[in-house]
Amino acid sequence: MATFVLVHGGGHGGWCYKPVAQRLRAMGHEVHAPSLSGLGDRKHLLSPDIDLDTHIDDIAQLLEYEDLADAILVGHSYGGMVITGAADRQPGRVGHRVYLDAAYPRDGESLHEHAFEMIDQARQTMQQVDGVDVVLEPMPGFAAFFGVTDPELGAWTDARLTRQPWKCFAQKIALVNESAMRAIPESHLICTSTIPGRDMDLLKARSEGRVWDIDTGHDLMLTEPDWVAERLDVIARG
To answer: HEC states along 120-132?
Structure first.
């Protein structure tokens, strides 16, 4: 069976993968779903120093200290920036990259540049909390922003969303082993609504056709956990 490292997006934490992680473990897979520094159950570590590199290091260090090999990195939304950087830092420990309705950056590109319209909307609401510039301030009903419209699931999500350090969205990714990273197989699970903003020909070419889409909200690991887990199992089985 495979080893998965599930990386969440902005304002989230490892908690958002709970439904998918439960299903993957039931299939016999090993699953790691960490919260990135300053987010989720690690929100108490929020500081002005946290940026994209911090989160890339979070995952790169997990790969090393857990002594993982052929790990399948799954990144949701902003997590696509993180898994790209982590695979670039630790290409020998990564067997597959999966972009879950995620950012798919070029070298030298920030998430703000990559997904300007959505991220710039978040930038307009920036505030400073304890010396940290943050966006995605949680509020009642905010889960709907991420496409979670079921009332019960939305309330569960609202209770767990946390502020996002702006520096993570503003910092440009710097790839140092890009050829090795790009040589790692990749797949894409995306929401149908985001197809118009993507270079689908490029995604299909680089993934050798491993592109699936589903008509659901952006937080598809919460709204469609069966579909996501089933596709990840297919990827793991090759």
So the answer is: HHHHCCCEEECCE
Distances from the Cα of 49 to the Cα of 35, 38, 171, angstroms: 17, 10, 12
CA distance linking residue 57 with residue 92, whole number of Å: 15
Return the beta strands (E) in 86-185 as ranges.
Answer: 94-100, 127-129, 132-135, 164-165
pLDDT in tens, 110-123: 999 999 988 998 89
What's the chain's Rg over C-alpha atoms?
16
Q: Nearest Cα to 17, choosing from 81, 104, 79, 103? A: 79
3-class SS of residue 64: helix
Alpha carbon 26 to its chain centroid, in Å, reads: 22
Q: Which of 113, 115, 72 is nearest to 93 (CA)?
A: 72
pTM, two decimal places: 0.98
The H or E element that residue 203 is part of is: helix 200-206
Give yes or no for residue 145 having a pLDDT over 90. yes
